[in-house]
Amino acid sequence: MVAPATDTLSIPIIDLDPARSGSSEDTARVAKDVYQAFKHVGFAYIKNHGVPQELIDEAFEWACLRSIAIIEVKLIANEYNRAKGSSHSPQSAKDKAPHPPEGWYHRGYSGIGREKVVQMVFDKEGIAEKRKTPDVKESFELGNETDERMPNIWVPEEVLPGFRAFFTKFFEVCYGVEQLMLKTIAIGMGLQEDFFLNYHQNKTNQCRLLHYPPVEEELLRLGKAERIAAHSDFGTMTILFQDPVGGLEVEDIHEKGKFNPAPFIPGTAVVNIGDLLMRWSNDELKSTLHRVRAPPLVDDSGLSGRMTRPRYSIPYFVSPDRDRVIDCLPGCFGPGRPKKYEPITSREYISMRMNATY
Ligand SMILES: O=C(O)CCC(=O)C(=O)O
Ligand SMILES: [Fe+2]
Known about the structure:
This protein has helices at 17-21, 24-40, 53-67, 70-84, 90-95, 124-131, 163-188, 217-221, 275-280, 346-355; strands at 2-4, 12-15, 43-47, 108-110, 138-143, 206-212, 228-231, 237-242, 248-251, 259-261, 268-273, 290-292, 311-318, 325-326, 344-345. By secondary structure, the chain is an alpha+beta fold. The protein has a single domain (2-357), classed as Sandwich (Jelly Rolls). A hairpin with a 7-residue loop joins strand 1 and strand 2 (12-15). One of its GO terms (biological process) is small molecule biosynthetic process.
């Protein structure tokens, strides 16, 4: 059943449960809703997605308290250090897992200002210009434990015991959501149900722990600082868990440049289509621009110098296996509907976009 999130917000809420446990008619109904959402909005909220709430809570606990946040980690780390008689500071813990200099090798910890998300800007000068307005965020990236091209870069076990084991499990559970979504998208598009699954065998996905520290609200509103600038995601789709703070905004499909809030809705994850699936479908499914700005004001007292609350989010980026060629899907081109894009491998496209952000 699809329900609008609010009167003004066009992102539908889709219950995945019938597609998991219902009849083939139930699955077909969910698949139709998923297809409509991605065709008309590019975004959907999914509920009964299959990631238990306790696991999500624990993931945020790691992100907020034990992993990447600076202030909170200090407290935890100090307690931990006292107990262990060791001398790790939280910053040095993060510095023990640094993101490599190459943009494409997207693993490990990136401090504030390290990554600057840009939208289709690839020339050096253009990128340098964009970097003048930094993204005020820090992140930790991890992927499939068996990925040989991009091995994970973990904070050492003795510094953050249990972190690696937890996120290895979390990553696998998210893969289950991915599989269900890929199946419903394929059915919704009239393809064999395992069509996309066959392109996503190697779990070349990426899970990211994002922390946007407090920043002066006015700087965000004036565009002098950004949390994450307007961009489209690169791969097949993104499954995003967000905290209740808010700030995620999605471009209105009918009005370029107008961004609508995508607030936290308890019990849901946000799913959006990435560029590769848009290319694959000859633009039938939309890779919609989105960004993170200041969360909505609770009271607009106009005080300057006011700080925003920190925001945490955990996106799981789904990409096709690296060597697979993404070419226009059957049924998405024909007489009077030419292919809009050249075929490209998943690796080529994603590396090109990633390299522009570091
Ligand atoms: O923090 C968020 O909600 C958005 C993150 C995002 O869009 C991204 O990392 O691509
Ligand atoms: Fe994104």
